Amino acid sequence: MDIHTHYVPLGWPDLATAAGPAPDWPWLRVTSERDAMIMVGSREFRRIGADCWDADTRLADMAADGIDAQVISPTPVFFHYDRPADQAIKVAKIFNDLALEICAPAPGRLLPFAQVPLQDPDAACRELDRCLANGHHGVEIGNHVGDRDLDDEGIVTFLQHCADRGAPVFVHPWDMPASPRLDRWMAQWLTGMPAETHLSVLALILGGVFDRVPDTLRICFAHGGGSFAFWLGRLENAWHRRADVIATSAHPPSHYTDRFSVDSVVFEPTALRTLVDTLGASQVMVGSDYPYPLGERPVGEVVHRSDFLDEAGRAAILGGNARRFLGLPTV
């Protein structure tokens, strides 16, 4: 089971008309039946293909890679946390309903996750409830809302609601800082994304969120949790040596490593071993970032190449952990 994939519909209503006037709404420039360009205003954002919207294409690729089911989450450029909440609500509803249409040809195999207007916690809770009732299996959120991280009171309210509803949460980095140093070599994606994810795991730990939200919250971080696993020792050392600055959590950081999961998009067995050694095999799930170019193909290859895994650990990472995360019956 692949818990990290994305979709983009083959077109959507004009957002300036549907959600309200604003600069740089995204739109799709379709170049053929199988190719398109996501535009943000007049700027080209990302070239995409039919694997973003066509169920048959996705199912063929899944068959080639031996994948039984995909979690299909929004592409973060559509979150719009920086817009007025009433506009973000309308956009979320549009894309959430289109996600159901994309997944409809393969129920049980294509599992849609919703997006919510996270800048408005009450509206986010209402939209989550609407989506769960309509057939979504969980929610993807960005890792921050402007300067508000995951320990922000409003976001904690939403996470509490997810725990109460039994809705799994997938956290994806987005809206990375830009600078002349980061605008080269895809550095926002290669260094910014891991750093953003690491920072947001810290927010849940050092911000005391895990001390306040019940352990029924099922939350997973993309891209192997960023750089967190590699630097847990540094964080642990700082918690003990500089308690006057950072020891705001009830326990040392290592106490919380069973409170969240990560995906396996780390590409090398040595990196996967670091995740397993740090978090435990029970906290890692196959993810691919399909269908984007920085994703893994064949999906799950790093798990199959990892000789250090025993049969039980490999089976858990390939599917058992995802079924638990999604609240599906075990097989």
Automatic annotation (TrEMBL):
Its pathway, per UniProt, is: Secondary metabolite metabolism; quinolate metabolism
Q: Which GO terms describe its biological process?
A: secondary metabolic process
> By its UniProt entry, which Pfam families does this protein fall under?
Amidohydro_2 (PF04909)
Per the record, its GO cellular-component terms are: cytosol
User: Which EC number(s) does the record attach to this protein?
Assistant: 4.1.1.45
Name the UniProt record assigns to this protein: 2-amino-3-carboxymuconate-6-semialdehyde decarboxylase
Q: Quote the PANTHER family the UniProt record gives.
A: 2-AMINO-3-CARBOXYLMUCONATE-6-SEMIALDEHYDE DECARBOXYLASE (PTHR21240), 2-AMINO-3-CARBOXYMUCONATE-6-SEMIALDEHYDE DECARBOXYLASE (PTHR21240:SF27)
Kindly state the subunit structure of this protein: Monomer.
